[in-house]
User: Fold this.
Amino acid sequence: MTSVRIPVVWHDDVLLHDPAGEVFLGVMTPGTETADRATVIRDVCIAAGAPLVAATPHPAGVLERVHAADFLTWFAGAWSAWEAAGLSDAVGAHRVVPYIFPTAGLLAGLPLRLPVAVHARTGLFCYDTMTLIGPGTWTAARAAVDAALTAVDVVIEGATAAFAICRPPGHHAGTASYGGSCYLNNAAVAAEALRAAGHERVAVMDVDAHHGNGTQAIFYGRADVLYASLHVDPGAGWFPHYVGFADETGSGSGTGTTVNLPLAPGMGDKGWLSALGRLCDAVLAHEATAVVVSLGVDAAAHDPESPLQVSPSGFAEAGRLLAGLALPTVLVLEGGYHLGSLGALVTSVLTAY
Assistant:
C-alpha cells in the first residue's frame, strides 16, 4: 500500500458546506463538489499511514491581506441576510445565488453602486451561477483557510511538506470575487503566510485541471509570488473561459511572474508531465524558497470535469517532480471529483514527499 509520511491537516467543519447542487445553464444540477470528496481523501490518507493533524484557529490577518474587507464582511453574513430577506420562502431559493451582474455592458461607464436588494448584491461578488452559498458555507470556507494556515505552521516548524484537505476549494476566488465552487483562496492565503514567515520569494504551482484565475489575479502585479499553472486550454471551451491564456504573464513589477501553460484536451501523461517540468524550471528560475501546490487531481482520466486524461502513474510521477524541488511545500486540495479514484490519486502524489 502507498505510504504517506507527511502530515495531513483536517478540520471537521469543511463538511458543513452543502451547496445542494449548482445552477448550470439555468438548470439546477446535482453538482460534483460534495462533502464526500473530503472524507474520501481523509480516510485514504489515514489508511496510508499519514499523521492526521487537527487544524487550529488563526486570526483573520493573513486572510484580510488576500481578500477585500467588503467581500469578507458580505460573505460572512450572506446566508443570514438571505434568510432575513425571506428569499428561501418567497421564491424557493434555498441557497444564495446571483441573478444580475454589474457588467461593463450594464453600467455603460456609470459608477458602480451598492444594490439595496440582497439578491442583487450577490452579483457584486459572484461571477457565475454555479457557486451557491448555504448555511454552513462561510464556516466551512473559514475552516479550509485554517487548515491551509495550519499546514503552513507545520512546514515553518520544520516539516518538509504538509497537505491541507481544504474544502471548499479556493483557486477560482479572487480578491473580492468568488466562483467556480471556490469562495476563499486557500492557496493564496498559504502563500501570503509563507511570505509573512520570512520566505522572500514563494511559488504557487497549480496542477488543477482548470486555471486558477483567482490566484493569478491576486498575485498578478507582484514580483515576490510566482503563479505557475498547467490546465486545460480555456480557448478550447473550458472553464474559466475568459482567463488562463499563455500571454497572461503578469503586470507592473509582477511582469514575468505568471506562467500559464494551456493544454489541449486529451493531452495525457506525456504532455502534462512535460508541462509540469516546465513549471518546475520556472520555480527554480524564480529562486523561490517555499512552494504552495494547488493540488487538484481533476486532470485524471476518470474525472467528470476535465478532458486531460492523465493516468494514476502520471500523478505519481508528478509527485516525484514536485518533491524533487526539495523546497518546503504546502499542498492544498483543489479539484478532483471522481470519488472512486480520488483518494488514491491524492496519495500517489503525497507519497513522493
Q: What stands out?
A: Strands lie at 8-10, 22-24, 27-29, 52-54, 161-164, 202-206, 225-232, 258-263, 290-295, 329-333. The chain has twelve helices and ten strands.
